[in-house]
Design goal:
Elements (H helix, E strand, L loop, with lengths): L1 H18 L4 H18 L3 H10 L4 H6 L6 H15 L4 H12 L10 H15 L1 H10 L5 H18 L3 H22 L1
Helix pairs in contact: 1-3, 2-3, 2-7, 3-6, 3-7, 5-6, 6-7, 7-8, 7-9, 7-10, 9-10
């Protein structure tokens, strides 16, 4: 698994270097949050790490190609290339695939690891840290468009949180972000 994680991180960072997306800080925030949650919830830390590194690995290419809605499918396809060359077990591969496929939520998550990946992804916009990274990176965008995008992402990601531990950690931050966004809109 160690070699696979090195390859997954390289892919995620290389894509950031090529396309600027997802933000390297967002990759790291979701990954570190996911690993912390996996330890606390006694899930497989390495599966969560792989899932958080790969869940948005081709979002930059999807955005550049005008196919944002296809980014999960594209990221999963790229991850399958890496998984096909790996010596991971079939169960590990399947779990990682579900972590990627379900990172925008699921009616019933395949595993605790896939649910953790979904929740860790939400920290990119529902935490003050993740929000500030996005605001800084997207600062060249027209201000009204930036506020609209951030408002959409904050609400979207807040609605996807399913783990009580994450809701507990993020409730106060979400309220602050809602107040900030409200002020920015007026």
């Amino acid at each position: 698994m160690k070699n696979f994680l090195i390859q997954a991180r390289k892919l995620a960072y290389d894509e950031f270097e090529k396309t600027g997306m997802p933000l390297k800080q967002h990759i790291d925030l979701a990954c570190e949050t996911g690993k912390r949650l996996a330890k606390e919830l006694k899930a497989d830390v390495e599966i969560v790490e792989a899932g958080t590194l790969l869940m948005d690995c081709l979002i930059g290419q999807a955005i550049q190609g005008g196919k944002l809605e296809k980014h999960v499918e594209m990221s999963l396809s790229k991850a399958n290339e890496l998984l096909g060359k790996s010596e991971l077990s079939d169960e590990q591969k399947e779990n990682i695939r579900h972590c990627i496929a379900e990172h925008h939520g699921a009616d019933k998550f395949y595993s605790l690891e896939s649910e953790i990946c979904c929740n860790a992804d939400c920290y990119r916009f529902t935490s003050v840290k993740g929000f500030s990274y996005a605001m800084r990176y997207l600062r060249e965008m027209p201000f009204a468009d930036l506020v609209a995008l951030l408002s959409k992402k904050v609400n979207e990601k807040w609605s996807l949180l399913s783990l009580d531990i994450c809701k507990g950690e993020l409730t106060d931050q979400h309220e602050v972000l809602e107040k900030v966004l409200s002020e920015l809109k007026s």
